[in-house]
Amino acid sequence: MEEYALIMRHEDGTKIASPEQLQEWMKQTMDWIGGIAAQNKFVSGTGLPFDEARVVTTKNSNAVVTNGPFGDIKETIGGFIVVKAGSVEEAVEFAKGCPVLQGEGNSLEIRKIAKGDGVH
After folding, report:
1. CA–CA distance, 68 with 63 (Å, rounded to integer)
2. Is the Cβ–Cβ distance between 23 and 94 less than 8 Å?
3. Residue 87 in domain
4. Residue 18: φ, ψ to 5°
5. Residues spanned by the domain of 72
6. 108 domain-assigned
7. What is the dihedral of CA 2, 117, 63, 69, to 10 degrees?
8. What is the CATH number of the domain that holds 24?
9. How far apart are CA 46 and CA 8, in angstroms?
10. pLDDT by residue (tens digit) across 17-65?
11. CA geometry: angle at 86 spanning 2 and 115, to 5°?
12. Would you say 108 and 7 are in contact if contact means Cβ atoms under 8 Å apart?
């Protein structure tokens, strides 16, 4: 079994959901994760709030810090989970059930997690 990160990308991170929407999405997300955990394939995960975020970039060999996760792009990373899967195809099947995909333009990026040797 390999581990894969399922990275949740929101096309427009500036949109604010109502408390009711957030509660429904959280329930759907917990149900989705529960289904993966029931197969003993959930490793970990977390949401990434938009406040208290900074972006550090390099410009003319100097570090430049900007507020927020947005920078010059609209797309933001809203969170991620780590799953165990026998193949990237199995990890993709888990990703297909993610409630984040209900949002127009949202996506999940599936990345194999490198082992300690850095070769993977």
Report:
1. 16
2. no
3. yes
4. -70, 160
5. 2-112
6. yes
7. 10
8. 3.30.70.1060
9. 10
10. 678 888 898 899 999 999 999 999 999 999 887 777 777 888 888 888 8
11. 10
12. yes
Provide the token pair at 11.
Answer: 């096309």
**Residues in a beta bridge with 64:** 57
Q: Tokens 């550090």 identify what position?
A: 56
Q: Are 98 and 17 in contact (CB under 8 A)?
A: no
Q: Which two tokens stand for residue 69?
A: 């996760």
DSSP state of 97: T
Number of structural domains (the chain) is 1
Residue 120 falls inside a structural domain: no
Tokens of 57: 């970039």
What mean pLDDT is reported for the chain?
85
Query: Can you tell me the distance from the alpha carbon of 47 to that of 30, in angstroms, rounded to the nearest whole number?
Result: 12
Helix (H/G/I), strand (E/B), else coil: 106? coil
- Whole-model pTM: value is 0.81
Report d(CA 42, CA 59) in Å as an integer: 39
For the record, the structure tokens of 25 come out as 């999405």
